[in-house]
Each structure stands twice: as structure tokens, then as C-alpha cells.
Amino acid sequence: MTAASTQAGAPPALAAIKALIASEIGPVADELDQAQSIPPQLLDNIGRSGLLGACIAAQYGGQAFDDQAVGELGAALGAASCSLLSLFTVHTMVSVAIGRWGTPAQRTQWLPRLAGGAVIGACALSEDGAGSDIAAASTTLTRQGDTLLLDGAKTWISFGQVAGLFLVSAQLDGQLTTVLVDRDQPGLSVTPIRDMYGFRSAMLARIAFDRCVLPSANLLGSTGFGLSRIVGSVLDHGRFCIAWGAAGLAQACLEAAVHHADTRVQFAKPLSEQPLIQQLLSDMMVHSRAAALMCRDATNARQGRANDMLARTTAAKYFAASAAEQVAGQALQIHGALGLSGGHPVQRYARDARILSLIEGSRQIQQMLIAQYSRQWIHTCT
């Protein structure tokens, strides 16, 4: 993506982090996909680069990047490795939640460690019976004197295999509440989830809580604050990251398809000169460009704190994820059997693109939200 990557005044750290993504993540993404894991050394390098502190204030050791910079990082990661896009997304979701809603003590305890990658944050929201319907969570918090007792299980937790801090949603006094849970908490167990269709190196896990005793100070926000404020805000941030990641993935698919079409000769001329291939490429170019523009629109709305910024972010996630899936399928078509081969980037792109339309709210959830925003949006979307 070149949306604003050469923008004057961009922080030097941003260029360095993007260089690391290009040099250390992109070239090994297919190996990571096959291994279904991220080596500790690479995670350490990512932490030291400042990537994980992108959304954390400078006073806690973070980069304090604006939405434009965060979007650029999402696009770069989407093009390089959607699994590590997932790490960036969930880790910054936790960082944003603590930075916005945490107590001074919680910020001091966790943000410096999250900023430098000493601790990886993960969002533990989904359950077997509560995916998009987060309010239906059956995990419970029970008051026990000055402590809380946590029981239940969460699943499909990105980077749950290595996360050191979980942002967990649970029912407390009949209301959805959020709580911070240290990985070393007695009663917490982690079961790896392998062989996913896409995002195969995102190190997913199932997290179970068996009478975990937590200090009441671990509550993030007040009782019942979880759904109305915290979960909604972190999901909005997650959708923004995924939207930009999808635009980056679409661009990577386009670049791969153009290169292959220019170099592959069939019927005595390059594929790029075949009319039906040109039709595919033209569709890919338009959808990739439109996805990037939708993401920029969401970025501008967020940076201007526009009244409809949630609507524009949701729309960007919906369109960019759909565009990435379509463009990835067209890239596969142009590559033929080569693109379907194990270890070929386009095959990984196609599998990862399918996941983008499911995470941080499925395509149908985004459609429902966009419809709810419609009366507000028609007066401002010009």
C-alpha cells in the first residue's frame, strides 16, 4: 500500500517498523503458515521494533501513532502476513482498552510491558455459544469478599497460545463486564487450536477458567460497562485494523497477479495481453483501489472525530474484507494450478482473505450495523 506511506512528516519509527515487516515477516510468512506458529525470536524482534506499542501513549513507552499510521501498519501486515495482522489487531485492542478505560494503576502495571512486547495481549470474548452475540457470554464472575471468582471458557483466541494478558468478558451480577486476567493466574488453562483454514500461524487457543481468583482491582471499568463501552470500542478499533489489513492483502494479490500475468506466456503472448485476463485484472485494480479509499475515508473520519466515524469504519471493514476475498479468488484464477500449490503466497492469501470476512464481526454483522447507521449516514456521506 502506498496510501500515505511517503507522507511528509511521518514519524521515523513508522518507516522502521514497516521496513521490519517487509524484511523479517513477509519473506517467511509462508513458512510460518506451514509451521502454524511464530518463533519466539521473531516475536521478540516485533516487540523491540515498537509495533506492539503503536497505540500506547509515549509516557508508557509507546509510539502514540495516529490513525493514519495505524492504518498503514495494518495494510503492511495484511500484505505480509494476516496472522501477524491478527497479533497487531488483538494486542492493540487490549492496549486501547487499558489506555482508555484502565485505572492509573492498571495503566502503569500493563502498558509499558505491552508497549515493548514483554507481554502480548489477547481479547478473550468469543465462546462456543457466543460469537457475534457477545452479550450472551456464559463465562461468569462471582464476588467473593474482596475478590472475584472467574469460571467459564473462551475460544478462537488469537495468540492465546503465547499471550500473557487476557481481556475477558464475563457476566457479573447479570451484566456483561470486562476483567484483566494474567496468564499465570491459577485455574487458567490454555489449549492450542491448530489446522485452521486461514490465519494458520495466529496461534489460536481455547482458554478455560476454573475458579480463577482475581483481585477486584482487575475489573476494567465498572460492572455492566463492558458491552456498552469497552467491548464496543475495542471491536471498532479491531475493525479498523482489519479493514486496512484487507486493503493491504488485496494490493498484494493484485501485485502478484500482475507479475504473473506479465511473465506467464500462453498462446504466444503474455497472459496480461489476453482479454479475459485483462478483465480480471481490471476488476482487481478497481476493487483494491476502492478498498484503500474506503479505509482512507474511515481514517479521516476517525481523525476528525466525525459523528459517523463508527459507520465509516464498519463500512470500510465490510467492503475491504469482501474486496480482499474477491481479489484473492481472481488472483488464484490467474495463477491457475501454481497458485493452488502448497507454500505459494496466493494460496495463503486466498485462505486468509476468507477469514477477514468473519473476524471482528462477520459480513452479515457488518451489514446489520451499516443498516442501523443508515439514517445518520445519509446526511453526512457526501
Shape: globular
Number of helices: 12
State the CATH architecture of the largest domain.
Up-down Bundle
Radius of gyration: 21 Å
How many domains, as an integer?
A: 3
Number of strands: 10
Helix content: 40-55%
Q: Any idea what the CATH superfamily of the largest domain is called?
A: Butyryl-CoA Dehydrogenase, subunit A, domain 3
The name of the CATH topology of the largest domain is Butyryl-CoA Dehydrogenase, subunit A, domain 3
Question: Mean pLDDT, nearest integer?
Answer: 91
Structure description:
The radius of gyration is 21 Å and the shape is globular. Mean pLDDT is 91; it is low at 1-8. It has 382 residues and is of the alpha+beta class. The chain has twelve helices and ten strands. Strand 2 and strand 3 form a beta hairpin. Strands 1, 2, 3, 4, 5, 6, 7 and 8 form an eight-stranded mixed β-sheet that branches. It has helices at 12-25, 29-35, 40-49, 67-80, 82-101, 104-115, 225-263, 275-303, 309-335, 337-340, 345-356, 363-377, and strands at 121-124, 140-144, 147-157, 165-172, 175-182, 188-192, 205-215, 219-220, 265-266, 269-270. The chain starts with 11 loop residues before the first helix and ends in a 5-residue tail after the last helix. It folds into three domains: 12-119, Acyl-CoA dehydrogenase/oxidase, N-terminal domain (Butyryl-Coa Dehydrogenase, subunit A, domain 1, Orthogonal Bundle); 122-225, Beta Barrel (Butyryl-CoA Dehydrogenase, subunit A, domain 2), CATH 2.40.110.10; 226-377, Butyryl-CoA Dehydrogenase, subunit A, domain 3 (Up-down Bundle), CATH 1.20.140.
